[in-house]
Amino acid sequence: MRFRQAKWSEPLVFELSSKGRRGFIVPSIEEKVKSIVGGIKIPKKIRREKSPKLPNLSEVDVIRHYTRLTEMSYGIDNGPVPLGSCTMKYNPRIAAEITSDRRITDLHPLQDQRTIQGLLKIMYLLQKWLALITGMDYCTLHPAAGAHGELTGVLIIRKYHKIKGQLNYKREIIVPDSAHGTNPASASMAGFRVVEVPSAPNGSVDIQALRSVVGRETAGLMITNPNTLGLFEENILEIADLIHGVDGLLYYDGANLNGIMGYTRPGDMGFDIAHINIHKTFGAPHGGGGPGAGPICVKDKIVDHEKNISLKDLLPGYIVIYDEKKNMYRLEKPKHSIGLLKAFFGNTIPLLWGFIYILMLGSKGLRKVTEYAVLNTNYFMKLMENVRGYSLEYGEDRFRKHEIVISAKNLAEETGVTAEDIAKGILDKGFYAPTIYFPLIVKEALMIEFTESESIENIERYAEILKEISEIAYSEPDKARSWPVNTSVKRIDNVRANHPRTLAPTWRVYLKKKNGLL
Amino acid sequence: MDNHPWIPNSTDDVKRKIMEKLGISSIDELFKDIPDKARIERTEWDRLEIGFGKPISEIEAKRYINGLLEKNKVFDPPPFMGGGSYPHYVPAIVKYIVSRGEFLTAYTPYQPEVSQGLMQALFEYQSLMAELLDMDVVNASMYDGASALAEALLMSIRVKRRKKVLIPRNINPFYREVAETYLEPHSVKIEYIPYDRRTGLIDLEELASKLDRETAAVFIQNPNFFGLIEENALDISDYTHKHDALFIVGVDPLSLGLIKPPGELEADIAIGEGQPLGLGMNYGGPYLGIFAVRYDMKLIRQMPGRIIGLTTTVDGSERGFAMILQTREQHIRREKATSNICTNEALSAIAAAVYLSLLGSDGIRELAELIYYRSHYAYELFKRNGFKVDIFEADFFKEFPVNFNGLGISYGEIHEKLLEKNLHGGLYIREWYPELGETALFAFTELHNVSDIEYLIESLKSIVGV
Ligand SMILES: Cc1ncc(COP(=O)(O)O)c(C=O)c1O
C-alpha cells in the first residue's frame, strides 16, 4: 500500500476573503418591526463602531475551503490511530445519525422536564449501566471530559474529608509516576499536594515506596488499572487496604477501562470513585480534541453516619431519578453536592453516543470488546519480540491488557533515530503514530493501543513498518530525519512556533508582528 | 453468531491464530493476573442488565431509540428561553463539515504533519474569534462558558497573587455556581456586587467600595444575565485597572455585531459561551468555552488549554501549524500545569469557525441587528399589551425579564397554560432573584419570527386575561 496525503496549500480563510461576498443570508427586518422598534438604542459608549474583521466568502468558498482542510486531516475513519492511552476505536456511524436528530439537538437544557422524558430515560439507563460496568453504586453524567471528571473526583475527596473534619491534615494525593498528567494537575487544582510514587521493575506501583508515603496526611490515591504501561496492578487490593487504612479514598482513572470490562471492575478492586471516558471506551468520537464526556461513579460509602451523608450526596450536577409514583424521570441535585462544574446537565451528545454503543453491545459484547482489545495488544507484542532496537522496559514476561509501551531507547542510542523520528516514519506509511514520550518513566516510549477495532492485517502491517524503520535506522539513519515526506507537509518547526519573536497564536498577531506593530 | 461488525478479528480463524501465537488455550489466561477477590465471574457479568445483555443489530437499536426520542418534545417555534443556551439557526454547512470523519474521528493533533487541516481549522477558529472579540490570543476551547470563567478567575489569582475576585450578582447564576466550585479549594474570597435596582446594571458605587489592592480580578458579563447591556463597562475597566486588577469580560459572541468587544473595553481576559455560533442547544452540551487574553507574555504563559500556532516547516519552505506553548499544559508540567484540561471542545470550535466564515463581517452585524430588533419588537408588544417589562431601564439584547406580579396567577401556572398551547415560555428566575417576584426571562432570536412573537403575546394575554 502506498500513501500520499492530500496537499492543497490552502490559504487561510482570511486570505480567501473578497469584498462584498456573502456566505449566508440573514432574513431582513420586517418594516412593521422597524417602525415599532424605531431604531437601535444602544448607548454610543458601548456600541461597536468598527465591524469585526471577519472575511467575506461565498457559500461555495466556505464549503470548499473546509472540505480541503478535512482532506489534510486523519481520523479513525481514515485508518488506524493506535495512540496509546487514547483508546481510538471505531465510532459507530449510527450514533452520528441519531445524535444529530432534532429531538436531541433542539432540546433546551432548561426545558420543562416533562417534555424530555425520552432523553431522561436514556440518561437514567446510562447512569445505571455505567454503575454496573464499573461495579459502583451511583453515577453523575455531568463532567465534560476525563480530566473534568478527575477534578470532580478530587473535589469529592476534599469534601469527604471536610465533612469529616480532617481536611486540615488530609493534604496529600498520591499519584504513581506512570500516571497521566491530568491526575496530578487535577489534584493540585483541587488544592492538594501531589506525592509521586515510583513504579517497580514489574511495572506495578512499588509497594514499599507506597507504604513509606502513605500516612495521616494521605487524602487519597489516584491510579489507573491497567496502568499506562498496559499492565494490571496485581497488588491493587493491598493498595486499597493501605489507603483505606488511613481513611483515604481510592480514585480510579477510567481511561483504561477497555482492558478489563467483564473481568474486573473498579468497584470490585476497592475503588471509591471512578471516572469514565465515554470518548475512549464507549465509542464517542474525539472530534479532533473534543468534546468528550467524563461521568463519575461512586460507591455508596458513608461520610457522616449521624447526618446520613454518603458519597452519592456529594456528586455534582444533576442526577436522573425515576419517580415511580408519577411514572416519570426527573433531575435532582444531590443535597451536599460539591456544586456545578459546568453550566447545565452535561455533554449530552457524547453521552448519547456512549449509550448507543453500550446498548448495541450489551454485557456480552462489552466483554468481547475487552477480549479482542487484549488479544490484539498481545499479538502485537509477540510480533515485536526480538526486533532490533526495541524493548520492553517493564514486566517483560507479562501479558499486556489494552495497550503496550515499547521503548526505542536502544535504537535511539545506537542510531540516533528517536521515537519522534519513528512516529514520522509511520505516518509516511499511511498509519497514525503511537503516543510518544509517555508514560514518562519509559525512555523513547512508543505507546500503542489498537483497541478491538483493528484487524490482524493492520496489526501485522504496523509491526512490519516498525521493523522496516529499524532496518533503515541501522543502515541509513539520516534518512529517518527527513521523514515524513508523504504527509501534506514535511516536518514542522516547533522552535519557530514557540519562539517569542515568531509566536503566532492568531492571524492578527502574525500580521501585527510582520508589520512591526507587536 | 460470534463475529461482530465493530470487531474485525472476532472470527474463529483469527482468534485461533492469535491464541496460538500467544501460546494460550483460553482467553482467560490473559487475565490471570487479576486477583480472585477482584474478579467478576463470567456468569455474574452476563447476568448484569447492561443493554440487552448481548449485541443487537442496528435495525433494532434504531427502532428502540426512536421509540425513546418520540417522548422528547421539540418546540416549534423554539422555546422563548435563554439563560445561557439559545435557540439559533445552525447552517447546513456547519453540520456537514463537523460530521466529516477526518475531523469528527480525529484525536488531538499530536502529529502535526498529518493533521494540518485540522490544525488550520482550529487556528482559524482562534483567529476569527480574535477578530470578533478584538483580542489577540485565543485558545482552542474550554469546556463551556461557565468553566472558562472559573479558569479565568483561577488564572487571575495566579497572575496577581491576590486572593479576592469581584463578581456581579447580575451574571448567569450557573456561572456563579461553577466559579464557586472551582475556587473553593483555593481560599479565594468571592465578593458579589449588587446590581442597581433601577437600571439592572452593576452598581458602580458598590463596585468602587469593594475594589481594592487585594482584588485580583473584576468580572462583568455583557449582556448580563437579564440581557441588559452593561453600558458602563469602560468605566469599570478603568476602575479595575487603577487598582491593578485584571478585567475579565464575558460575552455572548453574537452580541458583538453591535456591542463593543472586550478588546475595545481593554479587557485582560475575555471569556464566553460559543454555543450561539453554530451549535445546537443539545440539552446542555457540547458547547464551546471561549477563552482569550491580550498579548502579554505574563498572561499568555498562564493561559489554560491548547493553542495552535502558525509556523513553517523545518526547511522553511512552507507554512505549517503546531501546538504551541505546551509547557503550560498537564502532560508536561503535571501538578504545576496552568490547568488540568486535556480533551476540550475542538469540534465545537471548528463549527464556530465555519459559522463565522459563512456569516462574515456583514452577516454577524446583520444577525445581531435582527436579534436586537426582534427582541425589542417583543418588548414593545409586551408593553403595549399591559405586561410589566420595564423592570430595568438599561437597553438589552436578545432577552429581557417580564414580571407577572399582581396578576393573580403564578408564573408556574402561566407556563402550564403555554405548554398546552405548544409554547415553551421563558425562564423563571425566582430561585436566584427572589426580590423580582414572579419574573421570567424571555429570549428572542432569528428563529422567532413576527408571527411567533405575536402568537406568544396573544397566548399570554388570553392566559392572564389582560
Ligand atoms: C490515562 C488517562 N487519564 C486521563 C486522561 C484525561 O482524559 P480527558 O482527555 O478526557 O480529559 C487521559 C486522556 O487523555 C488518559 O489517557
Descriptive notes:
The complex is a heterodimer of chains A (518) and B (466). Chain A is an alpha/beta fold and 518 residues long. Chain A has a domain at 136-355: Aspartate Aminotransferase, domain 2, CATH 3.40.640.10. Chain A contains 17 helices and 14 strands. Chain A has helices at 31-37, 59-71, 93-99, 102-105, 117-134, 146-163, 182-189, 207-213, 236-245, 266-269, 348-383, 409-415, 419-428, 456-475, 477-480, 494-498, 507-514, and strands at residues 138-140, 172-176, 193-197, 218-223, 249-252, 273-275, 296-298, 302-304, 309-310, 319-323, 328-332, 404-407, 435-436, 445-448. Chain A has a seven-stranded mixed sheet with strand order 1-7-6-5-4-2-3, with helices on both faces. Chain A has a three-stranded antiparallel sheet with strand order 12-14-13, covered by helices on one side. In chain A, β4 (218-223), α9 (236-245) and β5 (249-252) form a beta-alpha-beta unit. In chain B, β8 (308-312) and β9 (319-323) form a beta hairpin. Chain B has a seven-stranded mixed sheet, with helices on both faces. Chain B has three domains: 12-65, no CATH class; 92-356, 3-Layer(aba) Sandwich (Aspartate Aminotransferase, domain 2); 360-464, Aspartate Aminotransferase, domain 1, CATH 3.90.1150.10. In chain B, α4 (92-99) packs antiparallel against α13. The longest helix of chain B is centred in the last third of the chain and has 39 residues, at 346-384. Chain B is of the alpha/beta class. Chain B contains 15 helices and twelve strands. At the A-B interface, α1, α2, α3, α4 and α5 of A face α1, α2, α3, α4 and α5 of B. The structure holds pyridoxal-5'-phosphate. Pyridoxal-5'-phosphate (PLP) binds at residues 85, 145-147, 180, 182, 224, 228, 253, 255, 277, 292, 294 of chain A.
